[in-house]
Amino acid sequence: KAGVTQTPRYLIKTRGQQVTLSCSPISGHRSVSWYQQTPGQGLQFLFEYFSETQRNKGNFPGRFSGRQFSNSRSEMNVSTLELGDSALYLCASSWARISVAGGGETQYFGPGTRLLVL
Amino acid sequence: AQKVTQAQTEISVVEKEDVTLDCVYETRDTTYYLFWYKQPPSGELVFLIRRNSFDEQNEISGRYSWNFQKSTSSFNFTITASQVVDSAVYFCALSRTGNTGKLIFGQGTTLQVKP
Questions:
Q1: Is B32–A104 a contact, with Cβ atoms under 8 angstroms apart?
Q2: Looking at beta carbons, which residues of chain A come within 8 Å of B45?
């Protein structure tokens, strides 16, 4: 079974631009989570999508947004890029329960998109 | 609040040595889940183990073993007879029931295994 894929793998942008990152989950997985990894802050949760709905959100400004399509593929968008947005962006997918008691499912990560903002 | 602490920033060992990576967590929940992930230089996080809060049985998988102790809120990871290929950053993470899709990660421990 193919793993989680992310495109592009590397990206260079300038301040003020916007960027869209893509994530294709493992076949059959319906939940997609996004994380930002930086040397200073470590791994931080951005948001999670399930059945095209954002179910959970981390503490990031509104410049960070995402969506999920009916085939469970997900995109995240960062508008008005800042230097501090330079990071490795990781996507993860999991089987997920529909109920609100969901949580604790194993997440499988993609290789990440390395974004450099100049 | 939930928190995961990996006090060891970097560990360096010589091949074939045993090494233990420490993980201490904080949570008020009675049901929670703990994970270990490995991040090689390529960047992808590789899943190693998942443990729920009701299962304190230790686990061994080949050269890897995990010791979960609720009494000390610790979930330590031991690599026996380390190999150069074990060199990576290792992350411990915590997840809560009802908090879908969110893993709370520790800062990671960089393990360097020298030949």
A1: yes
A2: 90, 92, 109
Sort out which chain B residues have CB atoms less than 8 A from A33's CB and list them.
101-103
Asked whether the beta carbons of B113 and B14 are under 8 A apart, the reply is yes
Residue ranges in chain A whose pLDDT is less than 50: none
Exposure b/e, B59-85, CB count within 10 A at least 16 = b: eeeeebbbebeeeeebbbbbbeebeee
* Largest Cα span, chain B: 44
Tokens matching residue A55: 């179910």
Indicate yes or no: CB of A103 within 8 angstroms of CB of B96: yes
Whether A56 and B105 lie within 8 Å, measured CB to CB: no
The DSSP result for chain B, as a single string, is --EEE---SEEEEETT--EEE--EEE---SSEEEEEEEE-TT---EEEEEEETT----EEETTEEEEEEGGGTEEEEEESS--GGG-EEEEEEEEETTSTT--EE---EEEEEE-
Closest CB from A107, A111, A114 relative to B103: A107
B55, pLDDT greater than 70 = yes
Residue contacts between A and B (CB atoms, under 8 Å): 86
Of the candidates A49, A90, A103, which has its C-beta nearest B99's C-beta?
A: A103
Q: Whole-angstrom Cα distance, residue B95 to residue B97? A: 7
* B101 to A107: CB separation less than 8 angstroms, yes or no: yes
Residue type, B76: N
The per-residue pLDDT for range A22-56, each reduced to its tens digit, is 999 999 999 999 999 999 999 999 999 999 999 99
